[in-house]
Amino acid sequence: MKRFLMVTAVLGSALAGAAHATTVAEVKKKGVLVLGTDPTFAPFEFKGADGQIQGFDIDIARAVAKDLGVRLEIRAVGFGSLMPQAVTSGRVDMAMSGITITDERAKVVSFSQPYYRSAQVFIVRGGNPGKFAWPASVKGKVIGVQANTTGQFVATDLLKPRGATLKVYDDFAAGLADVRAGRVAALIGDAPTVADLKKRLPGQFEQAGKDLAAEDYGMVFRKGSDLAAAANKTLARLKASGEYQKLLNRWIVQK
Ligand code: ARG
């Protein structure tokens, strides 16, 4: 029995190794870098009019693949299963999805260096009809968050104890629809996505009150993978050549 278990364990990990690349060498061997992303998060990843997934993160991932000499394959994965299961299970080689670097997450995955400074903010209906403000008017309010995001984590830590009720959405767009309909007082989201929404849908949404928390985005890899170091090299190259700045100008609305 013991031997049988050992054999299946060895076989199991051999199969996992064959199916899922973890290291630079494995990615190079299979000739493709598989990126997992939740493409509902403009301007970092979203579907364009042509149905293609595009955005700031996608261009950075393309540069990482290019430096490795492989092609990039993009897989759409809902944020709830992307972080961290899609990465830890090896379903994808890498995840980029405006993913905030946290100590908790860093226990199970490896992050690149930070590549973008962001913040959690309150999104309300254009004109802020309820005069929502943070930290003043949280008590007794229903506030929306996206499942498994740092918005949910920070809301659980800071807003619940102050008497807010949280409404959890799998899909960020459903939360936005509820903001528009007045079903939640505010939705927590990432600052650059709010700036983008304001540009695309003028007058419909705005930020209310102060930023809740500053954070940094990182590229995500399987724990201990040398792909993280490779990604850092690409990031340094993009910054030194001015390409990083060009990508910022192309995709991200500057406040
Ligand atoms: N920055 C937040 C986090 O890491 C939210 C990211 C949501 N990204 C997305 N593509 N829906 O938890």
Description:
- The structure is a single chain.
- This protein has 255 residues and is α/β, with parallel strands linked by helices.
- It folds into two domains: 13-115 and 218-251, Periplasmic binding protein-like II (D-Maltodextrin-Binding Protein, domain 2, 3-Layer(aba) Sandwich), CATH 3.40.190.10; 119-215, D-Maltodextrin-Binding Protein, domain 2 (3-Layer(aba) Sandwich).
- It has ten helices and 13 strands.
- The protein has helices at 2-19, 24-30, 56-68, 79-88, 103-106, 150-158, 172-181, 191-200, 227-241, 243-251, and strands spanning 32-37, 40-41, 45-47, 53-54, 71-76, 94-95, 109-111, 116-125, 142-146, 165-169, 186-190, 205-217, 220-222.
- The strands form four sheets. A five-stranded mixed sheet has the order 10-9-11-8-12, sandwiched between helices. Strands 5-1-6 form a three-stranded parallel sheet, sandwiched between helices.
- The longest helix has 18 residues, at 2-19.
- It starts with a helix and ends with a helix.
- Arginine is lined by residues 38, 40-41, 45, 79, 97-100, 149-150, 172, 190.
- Pfam families: SBP_bac_3.
- Residues 1-21 form the signal peptide.
- Belongs to the bacterial solute-binding protein 3 family.
- Residues 32-255 form the Solute-binding protein family 3/N-terminal domain.
